[in-house]
Amino acid sequence: MGDEVVLLDFWPSMFCARTKIALAEKGVSYELKEEDLLGNMKSQMLIELNPALKKVPVLIHNGKPVCESLITVEYIDEIWSDKAPLLPSDPYQRAQAKFWADFIDNKIWSSGLKLWSTKGEILEEAKVEFIESLKLLEGNLGDNKPYFGGETFGFLDIAFISFYAWFYVYETFGSFTIEAHCPKLIEWAKRCLQKESVSKTLPEQLKIYDFVLLVNKIYGRD
Question: What global pTM score does this model have?
Answer without folding.
Answer: 0.97
